[in-house]
Amino acid sequence: MPRPRRSRAAEALAAVLLLALATACGSRLPESDFEHRERATATRDGARDSGPIRVGVITSATSPVGGDAFTGPRDGAKAYFERLNARGGIDGRKVEVRECDDGGSGVGNNTCVHRLIDEDKVVALVATTALDYAGASRVSRARVPDIGGQPIGAAYDTWPHLYGIYGSLAPRNGTTGWAGKQYGGTEVYRYFKREHGARTAAVVSYNQAASAAYASLVERGLRAEGYKVVTEQVDFALPNFRAVAADLKEQGADLVFDAIDSHGNARLCEAMDDAGVEVTAKVTNVQNWTSTVPDDYKDAPRCRNALWATGSSRNFEDTGHPAVREFRDATEGLKAHAQWQLEGWAAARWFAEAAKDCAARETGVTRACVDGFVNRSEGYTAGGLLVPVVFERMPEPPGSRRTCLSVARWEDGRGWVSQGDMNTTCFDVPQLPYQP
């Protein structure tokens, strides 16, 4: 049964925002921002307290998008802290996770920020996944490090002390990106062109503002890489995916990109199978990189086996890698696995490494010390789970950039199969501006 329109509208918007912002670039603060306040923060935060170290996790768990849409990073972070505590914690202190569900609203988010920062006195926020991060400026003013959050909105390219899981090159001085514009690369389109000879790409969107805006960004990137672009727009209330599928077949599309929700994607895939459409790749993103593909696309076996996902973290199915194997061992009790869970695990590991470093210092584990550690984390990889994360304060937006990406393809019976190594699948690509 189709989900209520309000839920699908929110999901479409959230997916579009995530896709558009996941490849954005960002920044680093000067070291002077952290001078002359280590000792004062240590006293205020009780650095030498032998009690637990509190961290906050804000998640839009009960947002209009649905109960499971944004919970992956939270679950991954909690799994990491549980294993860390079982092994003695940090310098003998357990990590105490204080969760807050903001309900997907700005009011709820501000309430969570106030409770965690002012009442619970958390040292840091970890793996934030908020549909409306309205409290971001408050987090920044309080100088509380927010580590490894998902860039669903523009906050991680706007405010200091916020460190998105994919890094940032922007100044982060209170203005989004550079003069209100963010920049994203064309590495995904370059990959399919060079590695698989793709030449014609279709972009499917709704006749809804956020969906159409993101589709336009994808189209620009594809054209910059020399693709023939086929645009397909459907009515949001009554989408005719059969007509889209018929045109995809007639146009001979090699790739299909989309700016629609997961429910719409499943219906599009069913229509493609019914019409006999065969493509090199039906490209999805990290949010849909999950083990639930067989259920989500149960009525579209051909399209299901053409699903490809791209991102900036190591495939959660790559259990031959020790860091992934540790993650999978610790999360074997979860009913499903997802790439966002792995990224939440990586965010928690990032905090733990910062806290361990601070525990050995005179200041102890304070907000300022943890913030300084993360701010200096040039090329952080969480033990090989992430493409090296960079925070660099660039006064001008980059014209081009060398960007690496993780690529996986779904295969029935095998799951998500990695395609090459993410640290060598790299391209020098232009950076295109867009308005968030």
What are its keywords?
436 residues, alpha/beta, Rossmann fold, five-stranded parallel β-sheet, 36% helix, 18% strand, disordered N terminus, signal
What does this entry show, briefly?
This protein has helices at 5-22, 38-45, 72-86, 106-119, 136-141, 187-196, 209-224, 241-251, 262-275, 293-296, 301-304, 322-330, 339-359, 367-375; strands at 53-59, 95-101, 124-126, 146-149, 162-164, 182-185, 200-206, 228-234, 255-259, 281-284, 307-311, 400-404, 406-411, 415-418, 426-434.
How does this model look, in words?
Residues 1-13 and 19-47 have low confidence and may be disordered. The two termini are 33 Å apart. Helix 3 (72-86) links the parallel strand 1 and strand 2. This protein is globular. The strands form 3 sheets. Strands 8-7-9-10-11-13-14 form a 7-stranded mixed sheet, with helices on both faces. A 5-stranded parallel sheet has the order 2-1-3-4-5. It has a 3-stranded antiparallel sheet with strand order 6-15-12. The protein has 14 helices and 15 strands. It has 2 domains: 5-184 and 324-375, 3-Layer(aba) Sandwich (Rossmann fold), CATH 3.40.50.2300; 185-314 and 404-434, Rossmann fold (3-Layer(aba) Sandwich), CATH 3.40.50.2300. Helix 3 crosses helix 13 (339-359), helix 8 (241-251) crosses helix 9 and helix 13 (339-359) packs across helix 14 (367-375). The chain is α/β, with parallel strands linked by helices and 436 residues long.
